[in-house]
Amino acid sequence: MPRSCSHVRSTLLALLAAAAGSAHATNGYFSHGYGAKALGQAGVGVAWSQDALAAATNPAGTLPVGERLDLGLTWFAPKRRAAIVGNAFGADADFDGNGKKNFYIPEFGWATRLSPGLAAGVAVYGNGGMNTDYAANPYARFGASGRAGVNLEQLFVSPSLAWQPAAGHSLGLSLPIAHQRFKAQGLGFFRAFSSAPGQVSDQGTDTSTAAGLRLGWQGRVTDELTLGATWASRIHGRFKKYAGLFAEQGGFDVPEDYAIGLRWQAAPDWALGADVQTIRYSRVASVGQSLAPLLKGQPLGASQGPGFGWKDVTVLKLGVEHRVDGTLALRAGVSHGNQPVPRSETFFNILAPGVVRDHVSLGATVAATGGEWTVYAAHALGHTVTGSGSIPAGNPPGGFGGGNAVVRLSENLLGVAYAWKF
User: Fold this and answer.
1) pLDDT class of 411 with cuts at 50, 70, 90
2) Full DSSP string of 107-159
3) Helix (H) or strand (E) holding 271
4) pTM attached to this predicted model
5) How far is residue 283's CA from residue 170's CA, in Å, rounded to a whole number?
6) d(C-alpha 138, C-alpha 144), whole Å
């Protein structure tokens, strides 16, 4: 497509610049889906590829989507709150973590056929969203000062290839390049518990860039049923400016994830889909290790040092599409998963309350001359985790006066995308 190449390059550069400042999260800090169509049906896409963002979910989808260019924008509004109750140091209060309320998340995808059985593409999208900004510092009674919060952003650029080994089947691979940005503020009191006290808080924004691998398969096993599977490797990352905050001297990897899915053409104008996805947060030391080692002499930043204590997340996603006619399609979806934060780990997760479990979404696509418009809306139902023994009793260094931290999160998303078909 020579005529579109300059358009692709300029659009990609613009997306890279804009997405670097984005945040996007629902399942932990992974997005609940990629591409406006999948986002309108709770993220279902492992066996149901509909646009050029398909490779973000399953690179095997680069082949069946044909030749197209997709450009989308999502308004994302999370609501983060926390509270401390029953603390002997007088820290009890409610805290609003919404210093930044609105995020705007661009997405870009391009797919083209190299031959009838071989396709290539690129998807640009965002994760991240471990974002809090507390004007009133929840840790002030423990010695912290100033505003408190963290901001994690993850931008992915994923070139992909997909090959047809047999009719109705495709195999795909992508090489996701993850550019991560992180900063923390107002956490100075944790310096006393760190292996590198000068690299805990208020060090500005640090960055990390590395690549990984995603593999996928899609196959039509009957005229009505398509199955799919995908796996993505861990992508290594390190924030050297925060070597005294994160375990393994600032290590912060993108976790491994894998998923299976199906799409069933129940009737000529009705299709149903389902995905099951697992995200292995517990395997990333800085995310999965508990805060408990802090009380046993393991400092922040050490190889076996404390983390956020997150568990793995497994999510079930269900989606439906109704084609009203040749120009209009309507879709909806729901998803449910476990949330990653144990009740014993809420004290540190005041900074990262990624606790939502349930999502509902609606979407629609309308054909246009040479392309199509897609819109969607999604809501992550508010979920609260009340700590249980989450603030250690006693005085520092062995405790912080006891009591519990309570964290809550809900989210709203609204997006629009346009696709050019070639």
Assistant:
1) very high
2) EEEEEEEEETTEEEEEEEEEEE----BBSS-TTGGGT--S-BEEEEEEEEEEE
3) strand 270-279
4) 0.93
5) 30
6) 8
